[in-house]
Amino acid sequence: MTTADPQAQAPIVAEFLEGLVESFGLEGQVDVQVQEDVIVAVVSGEQTEALVGTRGSVMEAIHEITKTVLHRQAGDTARVRLDVAGYAERRRQALSIYAGQLISQVLSEGGEIMLEPMSAADRKVIHDAVAAHEGVRSYSEGEAPRRYVVIAATDDDEGDSPEAFDEASGTDFEEATPGDESDTDE
Known about the structure:
The structure is a single chain. The protein has 186 residues and is α+β, with helices and mostly antiparallel strands. The protein folds into 2 domains: 6-85, GMP Synthetase, Chain A, domain 3 (2-Layer Sandwich); 90-169, CATH 3.30.1370.50. It contains 5 helices and 6 strands; from the N terminus they run H-E-E-H-E-H-E-H-E-E-H. The chain has helices spanning 6-23, 57-74, 87-109, 120-131, 162-169; strands at 29-35, 38-44, 79-84, 112-114, 136-141, 148-153. Strand 1 and strand 2 form a beta hairpin. Helix 1 crosses helix 2 and helix 3 crosses helix 4. The longest helix is centred in the middle third of the chain and has 23 residues, at 87-109. The two termini are 15 Å apart.
């Protein structure tokens, strides 16, 4: 259990991100709030799209640097979620739609589908989408940064439990449950 105080740490995040936007010479606003013990930082403005990068790579780097700054100033840190120019929200929506298509495919064809490597936050979106459907399950395999999600049909006739799969494959994995935060680095 963490003793981090997100209310006290939110101003550190705001100050850092405001300084970053200003250092880049961009016009943008930084809004930092605490939601359910998570510091949620939103950087918005027409010019802030430059801070997103290819497939969110720059935004992910800014997220890591923000967490490092917070850790150095506060020690035990709260979780931080970052969205720049609406990219994270658009990405979550696109991944949810994509997951729905893959879930339909697995339900109709059976078997399993391995997705491309993705960030912990992206994996969580997939896990949450899968957890909301009967007849499918998801788990993560691999090591960061090449960690990926597998969506698989569940077959109660064969007793294909996560433990059975794990024993058969010799692979560690996580199975998602709704609201499970185990696959996030935020």
